[in-house]
């Protein structure tokens, strides 16, 4: 792998950048792999990378029906945090957080992980109780999270309306200072490049149209472009299509796919150097290094695969943003788009065995997928390598929807992010 | 300052109304009818911006929504600042204040430009992914440097002084664009009797006809436009919206139109006027007549001020009477490019050359140029521009037949303006918004709208039809089709005569080659605003970013505020060439809303500030305000939280309120609790199915508390239900849960058990509820009623229909404080009157108003839960120690029964609700605190549960808390620890949650 | 934004008046106690979630407050039909 650095840039500038190598190959798939990963998004690519790097399994293909990182990986609002409520989720997201820290160096690709802090504002006594509970739990879980009062919050975020005049005056906030943003495309591309360098075949424009299953065991997948590709184990990581793939394998999932919209303003001079989210007035916002205000909207209440949602959601979201940041009223919204979130009833993901032997699913991340990318890939790689879940992933089995051992993170997931 | 580029006559400006405006602190003159851009060009302002990455000087390129460079800061005062205003779309008004946004010390002499020149080569696409990584600790520093360079304009620091609103509209036909096609469609639909809305982003209707000298019926085309607009204005059912951009096209033919009502008058809306308005339109049929955007060609140094597109040059001359230079070179791949040269020559300035990339193209426009004696250089291209802050000359060279290579020698020509045309791109943005993928057309050399499920028609330029006669006919056809679709008869419309010009075939060429390879040639810009070059796209392709989406994301092409209106197709062409593919093989380009950016204020309309969300008040709200109550937001309700008296701390108020209830009598406004009237012969059966406890034997006149669970067995609401008659009940819910419970009842009734005869009605707002509680409450009630309210006649958990203060009332003898209590429900209109009577009569009994906080303390002393505070969706009744509220004798498997018997719900060691008593009675455990068994163990510590409710109890003289502990109900007397944020640890003993009057004697007197 | 015909009110109204209550035609088991944990879990949580035609339960929440069924394409968002509770669809998802 060609190493990236400032010096490298200088060197290449002398040859007019004519000698940059490909970031990944464009291989023709082999007939048989040890592991096939369906889905070349952030999670799938991370899974492939960790399979190769930590488990030495390099005879791996990632099958992507479009282009790498072209689904939710490039449609999210890039928030990374680990301050989840329950021990199980806290362990999962903190595992991910620790991989985020140092990821750019590990991948030799600047994913621009910026630990600028994430605030959850509290507007009611119930908000305060929920956040105080979260902070207390996180402290014992070894996760940084703290409460700040409205006065302190106003000092830290001058553009936020912390006055008593607001419809729902801000009473305080919890803040995880290690949390922040990363550059979404770079995460997918960085993992792709690193996985490719370790020998993983990244097959783009390769759509899985059926599963090869006999005696309740998967032996491969059928693709539209390359016919049947055999594999000992298959991992399915296809946010936005999990239900479709599960149907191919003959089972249903406790997952529904909903539109989730987001929008950006035009680029303006930075005035917000952190991330602010409010579960109560239903809005959250950060400002990118380009100057765009990046705003997440809510989830539409119906199943939708169109990567579009309803306009009313956009209206409500911007109402919340202007309520919190009155200075944005004359700022202009540039673009909106939609992703497809696979949401589980308890707002926690599934990293699990399935009714089909050797077929594993990693799905249902809802709005938490981006922040979970490194952890998800790392744990799923372990699951695929061992044929059974990693201890951190164990509670996130499909079985929990039968036993009732749900990990209800609606409080922590709150608004979509 | 003189307007040196202004023509003495012609154009649609009003020379009798001069306007003054300010740009970068200097005053200039323009005329009514100008845009900010045309006025700047009239005054010879060349540099309007510095580019984002390389800090290169940039000038005005276009004349409409596609302009990438002239993006300015507007506003005379702090509160009226508007960032990122496109000068080409901003109408000039007197006193307009504008400024460029980048460049230091000024946009003309920018120090960063030097760095851009030197460092530019170090910034290929995606360079930031490849560097700033070492050392890891410095990323914050790198990032803060990057952020200093971010953004274009700035947000105001003050609150927006303007207001906005929205109108919902319905119509038969929504026509987008009022050029020849749109006007023909509108005229047809209007004459046919349809309800029509026609919107156009410009200040007046006419579209491309405003920019040309074209004739219709032998008269200037604008005459026809005027006549059509006049006729349209006479129809009641036709809404004409100039200055209105259809910015989004959503599913089921829902469109949003952003109307700028006052932006052309001032930077603040006149008094009693909204600045902007959104029209939310539901249209039966939509006609997209959005026209096309001209594509510039990609050539070396094509961003030097003075490089424009040909259509813009014509528009500035014909519409604004401004010639944006003295010596023009045109480069074109098609006949339309010639028009700029003809217009320039007509304006009396020098056309240096028309450089046509085609060999020997013969059309009516090329021949007109030839007849004028203009210098036409065929089979050639402008391969490079000279100059930095303004074009000074061009290099022209011959091209190979395919346009791929430079052949022959280079000629240098002196010029200050280069106008290019690479053909036109249909404005397909809106059709993409609803998920339709565009389709490439080789003959149009552009993308056309793809198949759609919307009821959508297209006409004119959007179909790649650029001749006026064809556009008019397509507009008429679309109008007739729409009429037929909505069931109206064919309209009688005769189109005006338009001269049809012969057009030679255009050449499919986007990127002009240079003598040097693209990687070594001077920069050839594809997307100006994001500083994406042809070389950059080649690098992206070389590195393996081959899907067009990858190319766009890696280079940032199309991510500017113009969303790649000029550059996207050129970029695709460059990528296609690099990858040896055709343009459609590289993918498609899909546009998302908005077509052009929209102020947040306009999107939210009136729903800001006080109208962000309604506030719900009880009938007694005014009294609470007068008493100086502090309020708590519960859902949309404003509830009194506590009533501080002068000089009291919050805790002192609570102590006083609590003691008044325990020792005398308190009064609480409980009106916000949800109330649902339940009637029907199966009402009782229904209650038994939705509550966990038994309802079969509840007698008329009695009340009962119930827990409501989901199918998963988890508690989600609770409340008291009273039996009013054999088939009549009234149910109370939590304040926040009322709407959800109501729908819960309906969904089960309508979808699962429609055979049950039962009806629900929400009556929350119909009643006002005053709860009087405390040992003196009976004495107080006796003062206001003749009814015998003695313990013998009015038992605990009874309700009575009596008269209180002369008003019919339902009085419930139930208690949430553990004291003797009466909940007095009267019709809401009488709420305040009865309340005031109670207050008056209560004075001698020490009646004290108390709020929700005291209510919480008092109920916690009794161990009563608050659904939503002591439940979180993960606890069933047994977890709450409320097995007494579960009946397993009921024949019907009530909602929740099966759920709470799943294996995880019946396992040992579930978190259970208990009381917690601190070792130090003065310490109050903060709510939310987490319990551990060993505070000194290694992290992560296993959390045993959390504190859900915790208070100082003045009654008991010690703190009290309720919380969850794993297996807590079997651990009475054991010790747990609560480590706090400050490092201290609170030690507490697990106990019963009932701290006060465990036998419940006080309420039974 | 969806434009929905309420079969009870007999007219088209805006989506803002409605909300979706999930997959249609999921009957509550008549004998919950006879269900295994597996079966109860499936009733509670497992859904078809198709890309294409889908039968959904909707309620005219800010209107007549009645529930009804809708057959809708989850890809194109076209509404194929609406029908009342207890009725069967004429356009059937696979």
TrEMBL record, chain A:
Record organism: Amphritea opalescens
Keywords on record: Cytoplasm, FAD, Flavoprotein, FMN, Nucleotide-binding, Oxidoreductase
Protein name, as recorded: Sarcosine oxidase subunit beta
Gene Ontology MF terms in the entry: nucleotide binding; sarcosine oxidase activity
Cofactor dependence: FAD; FMN
Location(s) in or outside the cell: Cytoplasm
Chief localization: cytoplasm
InterPro entries recorded: FAD-dep_OxRdtase (IPR006076), FAD/NAD-bd_sf (IPR036188), Rhodanese-like_dom (IPR001763), SoxB (IPR006278)
Domain Rhodanese: start-end pairs: 35-79
Automatic annotation (TrEMBL), chain B:
Domain FAD/NAD(P)-binding: from-to ranges: 172-429
Residue stretches making up the SoxA A3 domain: 522-603
UniProt xrefs under InterPro entries: 2Fe-2S-bd_N (IPR042204), FAD/NAD-bd_sf (IPR036188), FAD/NAD-binding_dom (IPR023753), GcvT/YgfZ/DmdA (IPR028896), GcvT/YgfZ_C (IPR029043), GcvT_C (IPR013977), GCVT_N (IPR006222), Sarcosine_oxidase_asu (IPR006277)
Organism lineage string: Bacteria, Pseudomonadati, Pseudomonadota, Gammaproteobacteria, Oceanospirillales
Entry similarity comment: Belongs to the GcvT family.
Chain ranges of the GCVT N-terminal domain: 620-890
Pfam families reported in the protein's UniProt record: Fer2_4, GCV_T, GCV_T_C, Pyr_redox_2, SO_alpha_A3
PANTHER family per UniProt: AMINOMETHYLTRANSFERASE (PTHR43757), AMINOMETHYLTRANSFERASE, MITOCHONDRIAL (PTHR43757:SF2)
Protein name as catalogued: Sarcosine oxidase subunit alpha family protein
Record keywords: Aminotransferase, Oxidoreductase, Transferase
S-adenosyl-L-methionine found in the keyword field: no
Keyword hit for Ribosomal protein: no
Automatic annotation (TrEMBL), chain C:
Gene3D superfamilies: Folate-binding superfamily
InterPro entries per UniProt: SoxD, SoxD_sf
Recorded GO MF terms: sarcosine oxidase activity
Pfam families in alphabetical order: SoxD (PF04267)
Superkingdom of the source species: Bacteria
A single GO BP: tetrahydrofolate metabolic process
Protein name, as recorded: Sarcosine oxidase subunit delta family protein
